[in-house]
Amino acid sequence: MTKAESELFDSIVRAPFGAVGIRTANDLLSELVYLPARFEEKAPSDALNLQIHQQLLAYFDDAHFRFSLPLQPRGSEFQNRVWRAIAAIPCGSVLTYGEVARQIRSAPRAVGQACGANWYPLVIPCHRVTAATGLGGFSHHDDESGFHLGVKRWLLAHEGLTQYGT
């Protein structure tokens, strides 16, 4: 990791699958980013970043942990409808893109696009949305052996859903 890469984030927390980059603005969480293992931890420099670190670590320790973080408003009205539906999926469960689409009266592809545009992965658990035939994509990535689908597999396994592999 270069210093310039580290400076992209207010803090970075180590994760079992690599790391999570944290961005904040105006006392609100503005983005979480999945990062590969080459990113080193970057200590929180304020109370909000410390709170985010603690909550991420609590989730990595216990998949049933429920996040309570101040989120910067993001996304379109449609994206927010999708994200609310995703946030209602219980830990240890999944819905398909089609099932979420039926809930909100939309199309599976549009749901997938909104999942990929999620600014707050883990807090809004888009990893709990899968394809009807298997794992599906993740964060606009669909390379079966790629980093992002590896993160999705780890998260689902962490929540007890081992049928997707690790």
Write structural notes for this entry:
Strands 1-2-3 form a three-stranded antiparallel sheet, with helices on one face. A two-stranded parallel sheet has the order 4-5. It has two domains: 3-61, no CATH class; 77-164, Winged helix-like DNA-binding domain superfamily/Winged helix DNA-binding domain (Arc Repressor Mutant, subunit A, Orthogonal Bundle), CATH 1.10.10. Strand 2 (18-25) and strand 3 form a beta hairpin. The radius of gyration is 15 Å and the shape is globular. It has 166 residues and is of the alpha+beta class. The protein has helices at 3-6, 47-61, 77-87, 97-104, 108-116, 147-158, and strands at 11-15, 18-25, 28-35, 95-96, 129-130. The model has no long low-confidence stretch (mean pLDDT 93). The protein has six helices and five strands, in the order H-E-E-E-H-H-E-H-H-E-H. GO terms for molecular function: methylated-DNA-[protein]-cysteine S-methyltransferase activity. It holds the Pfam family DNA_binding_1. Residues 77-160 form the Methylated-DNA-[protein]-cysteine S-methyltransferase DNA binding domain. This is Methylated-DNA--[protein]-cysteine S-methyltransferase. InterPro entries: MethylDNA_cys_MeTrfase_DNA-bd, MethylDNA_cys_MeTrfase_DNAb, MGMT_N_sf, WH-like_DNA-bd_sf.
